Amino acid sequence: MSSLSPFDGSISRRELLQRSSIGFGQLALASLLARNRRAGAGQVDGGANPLAAQTPRLTQRAKSVIFCFMQGGPSHVDTFDHKPMLEQNDNKPIPLDNVDGNQGRTGNILKPFWRFRKRGQSGIAVSDLFPHIGQCVDDICFINSMQTAGASHFPEQMRLHTGSDRLIRPTLGSWVLYGLGSENENLPGFITICPCYNFGNVTLLRGAFLPSAYQMVPIGRSNAISAPPSFRKATFRNTQNPDLSPDLQRKQLNFVARMNRRQLELSGADAELEGRIASFETAFRMQAAAPPLLDFSGETRETLNLYGVDQSGKTENYARQCLLARRLVEQGVRFVELYHAPNSNDSGWDQHNELARYHSSHALEVDKPIAGLLTDLKRRGLLDETLVVWGGEFGRSPGAEVTSKRGGRDHHPWGFTFWMAGGGIKGGIKYGRTDDYGYHAIENPVNFHDLHATILHLLGLDHQQLTFQHGTEQVRLTDALNGLDGHVVHDIIA
């Protein structure tokens, strides 16, 4: 780059764009234009910025979402769905007729590995696996009647994120950004912290056919097997250009913009090209706006301890992610996903063997940081306008996995737990119920489309009106795929 003059007219516009380096190459898509109307929002900006904040049509209870995704399927009967009958009938056959969904892989009852205790003024029972989150129960709504259609990881992760287990659809965060825009033009509106790229999981986080403006921007990478150490912590990369000063970058950008606009005069309206002009501007501004977000030196020692940032080892990494999530929503970022994924030593929350060992390890990593996040949001007055969501793609079987000789549980989609806090949610309640053995959701079942519809509703978006014209069809997040349409769960809204 140092040998190239940005004002050398001997090269073409395409060559200049290919050879120029202004940093944030992967973030250039964060401000591409959209020409389609956001049907779920109110007044839509028809000007140059597709990410301009929109006025919701419905009453807005939450402005931002923080989704704590626990990849692999944490066990509901060991965490937030207390079933005393499992303790009383340990190692006995499950006395239910329809328990063959896992094709005979679920055996006799396996009692919880941890003791449940009633916590908070609401007296909701939470296991000793999550003592810190247990202290926050009065702010949490536990949905104990979640269910989904399949028992395989990737299809259900797709369904959770996009509403479909087969089709390539936009992810929830992209829909939220599409409907509401962003409140900060200097930062992406949809950020995923330490996503997992193994097994095609990045597909879960893409904007698919939505305009590129609504794509996710990743920060860091999970402790996946293939991830090098430099990727494993939450950090912005390429925030500085070692070859060009900000002043020279500014001149370069102006020159590129003039060339692009000249091309527009020749070609006519081109949303992608117009968006590319805006994307360079966003990337340039982010070089100043992004790095301070990662500087925790202004946080008090008490705050760092609240999250567990200052405790090297198990809690530090996820604690930094949670603290960064708070700082992002504080700056107007619309949707933040924290991706707790497997590392090189185990399978994440997917414990077919040694569940007690690995659930203990993972809970230790996330329990204090998430509780710190809830506490910090609340004391800063941000919890009322920030919706925090916790869960995985399914739960785990109440019976021991037949092939396991070391205390494991199989995948379980017929009844499991999600929880939500803040953002207009009633706290200190349990919604829905599984049977006495935690096998089937038997009261007020909630599927992922219902969850999506409720999240959008809390954000002020009508899930039936938030649509996008894709080819010949009007597509929405909660389309009636597999015969399931989404319904807002009004009973959990304050």
Largest pleated sheet: 8 strands, mixed
The pLDDT mean sits at: 83
Count of alpha/pi helices = 11
Outline the low-pLDDT stretches: 1-10, 16-37, 42-47, 224-232
Helix/strand order: HEHEEEHEHHEEHHHHEHEEEEEEEEHEE
CATH superfamily of the largest domain: Alkaline Phosphatase, subunit A
Residue share in helices? 25-40%
Which CATH C-level class of the largest domain is it? Alpha Beta
State the total count of DSSP E strands: 18
Compute the gyration radius: what is it?
23 Å
Order of adjacent strands in the largest pleated sheet: 7-6-8-1-9-13-5-14
| Percentage beta strand | 5-15%
Instruction: Report the CATH architecture of the largest domain.
Output: 3-Layer(aba) Sandwich
Layout of SSEs?
Blueprint: H1 13-19, E1 64-70, H2 84-88, E2 106-109, E3 116-119, E4 124-127, H3 131-134, E5 140-146, H4 153-162, H5 172-180, E6 190-193, E7 217-219, H6 246-267, H7 271-289, H8 301-307, H9 316-330, E8 335-340, H10 355-379, E9 386-391, E10 395-396, E11 399-401, E12 411-412, E13 416-421, E14 429-431, E15 433-434, E16 441-443, H11 448-458, E17 467-470, E18 473-476
Parallel strand pairs: 1-8, 1-9, 5-14, 6-7, 6-8
Antiparallel strand pairs: 2-11, 3-4, 5-13, 9-13, 10-12, 15-16, 17-18
Helix pairs in contact: 6-7, 9-10
